[in-house]
Amino acid sequence: MISHPEKKPVATESKESSFNASEIRFIDIILFVGRYIKLLMLVAVAAVVAGVAYSFTLQKKYEAKVSLLPEYGTSRRGSFSLLGAGLNGDGAEKLQPDLYPTIMQSSPFGEYLLKQPVVDKDNKSYKTLMDFMRAQAKPGLLSGLFSSSSKAPAKEVKLKREGILSYSLSEQSNIAGAISLLSAEVDQKSGVIMISAETVDPFVSAIVVEAAQKYLVDYVEDYRSSKASQREGLLADRVKEAKARLRTAEYALQSYRDQNRNIFSNTAKIEEQRLQAEYILSESLYSDLVRRYEQAKVTVKEERPVFKVLEPVKVPLVKSSPKRLRIGLIWGFLGGFFTLLYILLVKEKVIQKIVSGASE
């Protein structure tokens, strides 16, 4: 009797446990979704509810806005298209509107805001915005655990030098906090400037926006008219000097004529002609400087920009944040996303299957 050798079974366990991403079929995706759809929906709904509940722990904030339209100059000034290019009708350089938001991100602007007096909705007055921010600051739940009261504060050394700003760490933090209350943007097509502020108090938001508007208008006016104002001041000094020179020349001429009334020598006539020429030159110079000085005063007014208020500052009546629906949707998306990652990486062990499939 012939004994046949037994056939060894083919090992298929490794093949069954292996995973090939190219072999995924649409029906596999449907089955996967069917197995975990209830879990994903449950976690997403729970995350949405948790997000909405979390939004109730956040402080309500109110946003105030103002819309400005800058206009530059008189009939000989260019349109906003030239303004956007940084030029006016005469080719003079202008402060581009794109830089307006940058002005309200500067440290001097932050200092200016912190010094503004404000009033809250309860009609309580604060000497400065800094005092209001300190009153609204609340220590965190874990701040006491990590703060070390026994540790002495580090000694702060400031540089006292003209043209250099030297702030302490707390001052820099306060300035950054004040600047963060505001936002500004410029519509490139219409040129409208939108300034907005968002704080926990509607009255304070309106006051901060109004202060920012005043700072921006004053800054741009000073920038545009500073060169013309310097020229006006220079011409004013020259007019004074020319007037004094004219008086001196006139006095010298008249004094010489009084002293040499009956003298008919050629030498006397030459001296008189020289003094008269000096007087005529001084008078002409004075008249020309006066004319240019008057033109400079007009130019200062022409160079001063005009800001038209399209939408004035209003006290907000409805809160602008927190947006509970948006927070809930974001939490729901994140909850579903992390649940999907957990299913793929922990329950289905996709990475381990991919690695084992690649090794085979």
Tell me about this structure.
The chain is α+β, with helices and mostly antiparallel strands and 360 residues long. The protein is built from twelve helices and six strands. A four-stranded antiparallel sheet has the order 4-5-1-6. A two-stranded antiparallel sheet has the order 2-3. Helix 2 crosses helix 11 (324-347), helix 5 crosses helix 8 (169-180) and helix 9 packs antiparallel against helix 10.
What's a quick, concise take on this entry?
It is a multi-pass membrane protein. With 360 residues, this protein is an alpha+beta fold.
Largest sheet composition: 4 strands, antiparallel
| pLDDT < 50 stretches | 1-17, 73-92
The whole-angstrom Rg is 39 Å
Q: On the 0-100 scale, what is the average pLDDT?
A: 78
Termini separation (Å)? 41 Å
Structural class determined from secondary elements: alpha+beta
Strand order of the largest sheet: 4-5-1-6
What is the strand content? 5-15%
User: What would the principal axes of the Cα set say about the shape?
Assistant: elongated
Give the beta-strand count: 6
Order of helices and strands: HHEHHHEEHHHEEHHEHH
Bin the helical content. Answer: 55-70%
Enumerate how many helices there are, as a single number: 12
Main location: membrane
Transmembrane segments: 36-56, 327-345
Keywords: Cell membrane, Membrane, Transmembrane, Transmembrane helix
Subcellular location: Cell membrane
